[in-house]
Amino acid sequence: MHALIVFAHPDPDSLTHAAAARVAEGLRAAGHSAELADLAGEGFDPRYGQADHDAYRERAPHPPQVRAEQARIDRADALVLVFPVYWWSMPGLLKGWVDRVFSNNWAYATRDGRVVGQLQRLQVHLFGIGGADQRSYVKHAYDVAMKTQIDHGVFDYCGACVASSTVRFDTEGRDRQPHLDAAFELGRAVFEGEGCRAA
Fold it and tell me: What global pTM score does this model have?
């Protein structure tokens, strides 16, 4: 089985980069293949522009960069997003990737007035890296808001299966190892067990 690991952080020494690499190591240790998509390092343009809007309105094909990302997802059996939590959500670079790539007539379509998700075959794992403690997330229901916005609002809308959704708390400390260990275990478990749940 093959997984695409998409991550978004400008600093190659970040915990985000290290965690994405550990997810890949876990996948390979379990006998699977993995591709790393470093959106910052690859220079992905997150700006939803006129060409994207024209594709949405079915006036033009999707831009080449978008088609290339869709092809990477099409090759994968699972998608793993590794991201720092910025303002209780994913960073703008990753959100722009979602805005552009998860497009009309690829991720979803409208048929007879109904939206139909087209990514039912795709298993999704979310690995957020949060600086705040768990108490802050629970106190203000940020954890619930993130699941509503990302798990349900993006992936359930597209018919994809959110198999796991994790936020690591208190990641600003010196000891990265527990977070890296969790990333490795996520990689090892991507294709284990039942996997999917309703988002």
Answer: 0.93
Q: What is the largest CA-CA distance in the chain?
A: 54
Closest CA to 154 of 6, 38, 3, 1: 6
User: Could you give the CA distance from residue 107 to residue 116 in angstroms, rounded to a whole number?
Assistant: 9
- What CA–CA distances, in Å, run from 70 to 62, 112, 173, 196? 10, 25, 36, 21
Cα distance between residue 116 and residue 110, in whole Å: 6
**All domains of the chain in start order, with CATH:** 2-189 (3.40.50.360)
Considering only CA atoms, which of 80, 83, 101, 102 is closest in space to residue 92? 83
Report CA 99 to chain centroid distance, whole Å: 12
What amino acid is encoded at 11 in this protein? D
Task: Give the tens place of pLDDT for each residue, 4-63.
Answer: 999 999 999 999 999 999 999 999 999 999 999 999 999 999 999 999 999 999 999 999
Mind giving me the DSSP string for 112-169? TTEEEE--TT-EEEEEEE-SS-HHHHHHTTHHHHHIIIIIIIIIITTT-EEEEEEEE-
Q: Which residues pair with 78 in a beta bridge?
A: 3, 123
